[in-house]
Amino acid sequence: MAIRADMLVMNCTRLLTLAGPSRPRIGDEMNDLGEVESGAVVITDGKILETGPAEQLNAKYDCPQRINAAEGIIMPGLVDCHTHAIFLRPRADELAQRAAGVPYLDILAAGGGIYSTVRSVLAAGREHLRWETQNRLDAMLAHGTTTVEIKSGYGLNLETERKMLQIAGFLDRRHPMDIVATFLGAHVVPENMDRAAYVDFLVDEALGELKGLAEFCDVFCDAEAFTLDEARRIFSAALEQGYKLKIHAGQFTDMGAAGLAAEFGAVSADHLEHVSDEQLAQMHDCGTLAVLLPGAALYLMSETYADARRMIDAGVPVAVATDFNPGSCPCFSMQMMISLACLKLKLTPAEAVTAATINAAYALDRGDRVGSLEPGKQADLIIVNTIDERELACHFGVNNVRTVIKAGKVV
């Protein structure tokens, strides 16, 4: 007698389960996508019940809802583990400035860049910000992203940082996507404020006041942002308050931030265009993931991209994300990041898919719940209009996703 279940997703050319060890994938493991030819996925109560050959599962289960993959590929929902998605409008004027040769850090030092977005977010009403963010999440979901991290950091005062994190929490409860909130009060020092006083504010007040609204604490440790000593102090206070840690490291200069991430057991160090072999060894030893953001390097017209192959060879687990934000990467497509991971970071298509799914899930401490299609995990999967992951990587600039299933429901 057939077993009752809610949904059967079948008739694909390839099922990419990403099944594997209960940890981030490293080295050549990133090329193993857990492929099942002509596979299927059985779902019940929003969870994955079983994966395997479609012929066997079709006979074994009685499912009232059957989803036809129509010869596409079935794979895990994409996980975007680094975004700044709460803002009003992109900073379109800065693109022309950079095209004219003005570096990003010069724009920031002149009061543009992050400061420009801070001024607009400070002036924005809560509902306006929420509406803009919700529309972006709708578009991200339609492009296959089922879990997303969202940082604060465009308020730089207690009231506005709280507003941003509350919007993230509200949308996590109301939107189909899972949202992981990160407190990034240490984005830049506010204009016309003493930097020592601002670090004191973060350590002595903000981290405690906001700890119930954010899971992670992040620090932008780079030129024109925060020093290594300041980041160390903020990390120490964040750990005492129960935050997990992330860091913006080595985007423009190597200040040793990746090593600091390893020292404090941070879940991830992000960007890493500039990082030493010694720091990579430290990241490997403590299990800190490298989150690479090729979209930011592309949009900033940089000639320097993260050396992903060096990281993989060092045994560091690599994830990719969009860095979706209004100024340095106004792109929310994780599909595009898979393409850029191949074109600019020199990953194989299989490595890029791993970096955008299971490793990205571990970069949010969600690897036990999402990022792969394994029994007991949340049923987050997408059906893609390609025959394999290579075609997904090469067919860039379009939405290849046909169907999104989030927690067992077609959305």
UniProtKB/TrEMBL annotation:
Keywords: Histidine metabolism, Hydrolase, Iron, Metal-binding, Zinc. One of its GO terms (cellular component) is cytoplasm. Its EC number is 3.5.2.7. Pathway: Amino-acid degradation. Residues 73-411 form the Amidohydrolase-related domain. It holds the Pfam family Amidohydro_1. InterPro entries: Amidohydro-rel, HutI, Metal-dep_hydrolase_composite, Metal_Hydrolase. One of its GO terms (biological process) is L-histidine catabolic process to glutamate and formamide. One of its GO terms (molecular function) is metal ion binding. It is an enzyme of class 3 (hydrolase). This is imidazolonepropionase. It comes from marine sediment metagenome.
